[in-house]
């Protein structure tokens, strides 16, 4: 049996592409969602119908009791989580002076507290069996900062710090922790951008296009795989060369 995977925010976009790729490679997969119940269940049904093993599980990753219940359900139905992909996040563009404290707190709660809570739930099992892999999804904006996305950039920088520190702490216990920092990827997260904005972002990318969710999924899969067995604490950047 291949390792069990839990992907947060797997109802669409990068999370869904990641869950599908692990399923195609033979891994049992738990697809977490918050609001988008039907797309998550539909994806799990499709995976099961094509011979894979998947389940959809609801949790707002910012809520400790919901995260605990999600891991309990995943443990009951698929066994302990061997590979955790912390992908769920929210983003909104606005001037820093227009961001109120509630929005700041909510963005940190989902993008950073969510990772803390999921790592806390996942680690005891990984520590006990002396193996496991955690992949945290950051962003190139966490590396270089984005105007009008200060809160989001701050959360994504925190993800990189968490990854590096945790990798050092749990490396001796046989657990690898890595980060993927994508560039501009064609998902609903960018649905608010105008065609002109998107063209400009594509033109600013040396590969002259936006990335696809499947291209980020392959980076995540690589880091979780045995091919990356000596890689931990690193940031892999599927960004078309936007940030080098
Ligand atoms: P997306 O299309 O907006 O999808 C976000 C996912 O996160 C959805 O499945 C959503 O689920 C889930 N989610 C949001 N809040 C949640 C919560 N509180 N609890 C549980 N799940 C929650 O985003 P995406 O573009 O695929 O982005 C995925 C990751 O890549 C994020 O970490 C993002 O920051 C990062 N990223 C994206 C880009 C990009 O250009 N798209 C670039 C760099 C990094 P529900 O709909 O069920 O609520």
How would you summarize the topology of this molecule?
Layout: E1 5-7, H1 13-24, E2 29-33, H2 37-49, E3 54-58, H3 64-78, E4 83-86, H4 101-129, E5 132-137, H5 140-144, H6 150-170, E6 175-180, H7 195-203, H8 213-224, E7 235-236
Parallel strand pairs: 1-2, 1-4, 2-3, 4-5, 5-6, 6-7
Bound molecules: NADP nicotinamide-adenine-dinucleotide phosphate.
NADP nicotinamide-adenine-dinucleotide phosphate is lined by residues 8-9, 11-15, 32-36, 60-62, 87-91, 110, 137, 139, 182, 184-185, 187-190.
Write up this protein:
By secondary structure, the protein is α/β, with parallel strands linked by helices. The chain has a single domain, classed as 3-Layer(aba) Sandwich (Rossmann fold). The chain is 48% helix and 13% strand. It is built from eight helices and seven strands; from the N terminus they run E-H-E-H-E-H-E-H-E-H-H-E-H-H-E. It has a seven-stranded parallel β-sheet, with helices on both faces. The termini are far apart. Residues 8-9, 11-15, 32-36, 60-62, 87-91, 110, 137, 139, 182, 184-185, 187-190 line the site of NADP nicotinamide-adenine-dinucleotide phosphate.
Concise synopsis of the structure shown:
This protein has 244 residues and is of the alpha/beta class. Helix content is 48%, strand content 13%.
Average of pLDDT: 98
Q: What's the CATH class label?
A: Alpha Beta
Q: How far from one another are the termini?
A: 38 Å
Please tell me how large the radius of gyration is.
17 Å
Helix/strand structural class = alpha/beta
Ligands present: NADP nicotinamide-adenine-dinucleotide phosphate
Number of strands: 7
The name of the CATH topology is: Rossmann fold
Shape category: globular
Any idea what the CATH superfamily is called? NAD(P)-binding Rossmann-like Domain
Order of neighbouring strands in the sheet with most strands: 3-2-1-4-5-6-7
Kindly estimate the percentage of residues that lie in beta strands according to DSSP.
5-15%
Taken together, the total number of domains comes to: 1
């Amino acid at each position: 049996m291949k390792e069990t995977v839990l992907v947060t925010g797997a109802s669409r976009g990068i999370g869904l592409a990641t869950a599908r790729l692990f399923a195609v490679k033979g891994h049992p997969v738990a697809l977490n969602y918050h609001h988008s119940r039907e797309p998550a269940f539909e994806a799990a049904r499709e995976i099961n119908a094509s011979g894979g093993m998947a389940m959809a599980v609801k949790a707002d990753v910012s809520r400790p009791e919901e995260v605990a219940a999600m891991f309990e359900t995943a443990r009951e139905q698929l066994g302990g989580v061997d590979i955790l992909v912390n992908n769920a996040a929210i983003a909104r563009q606005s001037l820093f002076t227009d961001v109120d404290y509630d929005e700041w707190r909510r963005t940190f709660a989902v993008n950073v507290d969510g990772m803390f809570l999921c790592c806390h739930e996942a680690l005891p099992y990984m520590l006990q069996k002396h193996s496991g892999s955690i992949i945290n999804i950051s962003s190139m904006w966490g590396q270089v900062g984005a105007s009008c996305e200060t809160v989001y950039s701050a959360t994504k920088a925190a993800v990189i710090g968490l990854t590096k520190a945790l990798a050092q702490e749990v490396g001796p216990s046989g657990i690898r922790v890595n980060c993927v920092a994508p560039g501009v990827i064609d998902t609903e997260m960018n649905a608010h951008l105008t065609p002109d904005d998107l063209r400009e972002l594509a033109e600013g990318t040396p590969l002259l296009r936006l990335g696809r969710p499947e291209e980020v999924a392959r980076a995540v899969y690589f880091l979780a795989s045995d091919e990356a067995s000596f890689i931990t604490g690193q940031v892999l950047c599927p960004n078309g060369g936007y940030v080098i």
